Amino acid sequence: MTHTAIAAGATFPVLTVKALDGSDVELGKISDKADWKIVVVYRGKHCPLCTRYLNTLETFKQRFIDNGVEIAAVSADSKAQLEEHLPSLTTSFPIYYGLSIEQMQALGVYISNPRSEKETDHRFAEPGLFVINEKNQVQVLDISNGPALRPEIATLAAGLEFIKAPENNYPIRGTFQ
């Protein structure tokens, strides 16, 4: 089995996903309200750990915004699955749906088959988190092959505050080839 992850410092790929209103959205595009972006790839509505992670991320949202970092999340779920999931979420950041297998592969996230139809009805991405800088480069990334291992959000917030502080002149790490 071969697995290839997106490289630190690489340009974040152009990936078009769906917003709840059915419009197409470029996942990595940073709005005029921020200069960096966190993209969280989550497993889908079937995953209670994902629900908890997204809800916890919401409690840090203002801290990220104050640091110029916006948040978006995406899964391979359908629109109907996302709509069913929304009542369990306390999030106010955008959550998109329809991540394809090809897009998951472009990001280098792990992909799983459902254990049964009770879990979900499609292949899905295991957790991934990508921080995109103002140059559209992957500044920081974390991928996991299971739902229990994800970046601790308070540590991520503090780390991005340090990385973005101009006096620290902090480079993209992990680029040695």
TrEMBL record:
**What domain of life?**
Bacteria
Looking up PROSITE patterns in the UniProt record yields:
THIOREDOXIN_2
Q: Which residues does the UniProt record annotate as the domain Thioredoxin?
A: 6-168
Report the InterPro entries cross-referenced here. Answer: AhpC/TSA, Thioredoxin-like_sf, Thioredoxin_domain
**Record protein name field:** Redoxin domain-containing protein
Query: Which species?
Result: Psychromonas aquatilis
